[in-house]
Design goal:
alpha/beta, four-stranded mixed β-sheet, five-stranded mixed β-sheet, 9 strands, 40% helix
Length: 179
């Protein structure tokens, strides 16, 4: 099964979801989030899928966050709805009763990092970069990643990443126990 922005295939009982917007660094727009939510619901009830991998198309990004072009157009209720949808998706990933692996190559920023944090495991290539740069837009991460990151690296380090917007590379993420 594939949609406009999501590719899905099953091989040897392992499902692979690929966010397929490499021209936009796999940014999460409204359509992509809707497709991802629907697909996760289908995977959840599919007995032929015993493990799930989530990745991004291309070699530059896993998911570089929310689609800024769409984000700029949102009013308060629209932004709240986007945040709720992201929370629903990340909670769905956490609750799927099979192992879920984030295969991160390139940027995992903002909502992309939050998506990866919802997975059971994160495996990263050497060129992976992680961060929560929302502060640079005057907003906070909205998909629940602040709490998930605190559980992994502690409150002080998570707060530092949220308040500075600084990115870390794969080696630092490994040292911190993220990957």
């Amino acid at each position: 099964m594939s949609t406009d922005n999501i590719l899905f295939e099953v091989t040897d009982r392992v499902g692979v979801i690929t966010i397929n917007r490499p021209e936009a660094l796999n940014a999460l727009n409204k359509v992509t989030l809707e497709e991802l939510e629907t697909l996760l619901g289908e995977v959840e009830g599919n007995e032929s899928v015993r493990a799930l991998v989530i990745t991004g198309a291309g070699d530059k990004a896993f998911v570089a966050g929310a689609d800024i072009r769409e984000l700029k157009e949102l009013d308060g209720p629209g932004a709240q709805a986007l945040s709720r949808r992201g929370q629903i998706i990340t909670l769905k990933i956490e609750s799927i009763p099979i192992p879920v692996v984030a295969a991160v190559n390139g940027y995992a920023l903002g909502g992309g990092f939050e998506l990866a944090l919802a997975c059971d495991f994160i495996y990263a290539s050497e060129n992976a970069r992680f961060g929560l740069p929302e502060i640079n837009l005057g907003i906070l991460p909205g998909f629940g990643g602040t709490q998930r990151l605190c559980r992994l690296v502690g409150t002080a380090r998570a707060l530092e990443m949220c308040l500075t917007g600084d990115q870390i590379d794969a080696a630092e993420a490994f040292k911190l126990g993220i990957v």
